[in-house]
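User: Good morning. I'm curious how zinc ion would be positioned relative to this chain. Could you predict the structure with it bound?
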Amino acid sequence: MTELPARRLLLVHAHPDDESINNGATMARYAAEGVHVTLVTCTLGERGEVIPPQLRELTGPALGAHRRGELTAAMAALGVHDFRLLGGPGRYGDSGMMGLPDNDAPDCFWQADVDAAAASLVEVILEVRPQVLVTYDDDGGYGHPDHIQAHRVAMRAAELAEAAGWRIPKVYWNRVPRSVAEGAFARLRDELPGLPFTRSAAVSDVPGVVDDDRVTAEIDGTGAPAAAKAAALRAHATQIEVAPGDRYFVLSNELAQPLFTTEYYELVRGGPAGESAGGPAGNRETDLFAGVDDTAEAA
Ligand SMILES: [Zn+2]
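Assistant: Good morning! Here's the predicted structure, ligand included:
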């Protein structure tokens, strides 16, 4: 069997850029610590809206190919070498926002058979044998069909992998504590006049915001991981514009939002013995591998 580092982290995301927005600091920090970080992205995001006017001619497969290049650059910024597209490049198409006719395209990810897509992910899980899986909640964080589907496929794959011989000890969903989001948007509103953006998004625009007591882990990316995250976000130039100073960014809706350098999670499977899950900041895990026995190689 392939020799892999003792600690292994798997992240499952819908489109290129989601990994950097949600987990960029976490990925950079763990990669720098020698953890084997694997990213599986489910689609190439070929229905995404493009920000730079000079790139707006890119649509469909051409945009997908371009975004694949952006993803490669983002992973270089984060120091992540193992990144894959679910089922191979172009296997699943971007489904577009909820309610659009795009959702009905037979090759889009939303129309994919969950068990078949999960089977592709199980292959990765059995190869990498991660101790930690990170994905979205059952609403995909904010209701995008591809994010919901990524959640379903990731959770189903964890189940199928267990039956096939590898139980992932810990599973997390991406979160932002409501108080953190509210505080960050209050600062954003104060600082907006100094930013290259004219309007602010709202707390409700941020995926995965929940009451603070549901958040069980926080990963502090202050320093090099935060810088790597900002660089990774900039690599996704068709989708993201980062303001100078690296504290705010916009998506194609041009609404400013905070760039979180501490990233938050809700543990939904497993847990360190004797540690309480959830609650105020002081009780949260500060390491996604807390309590994991990384000498155990068999399920
Ligand atoms: Zn996405």
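The mean pLDDT is 94. The pocket of zinc ion is lined by residues 14-15, 18, 144, 147 (CB under 6 Å).
Let me know if you'd like a different ligand tried.
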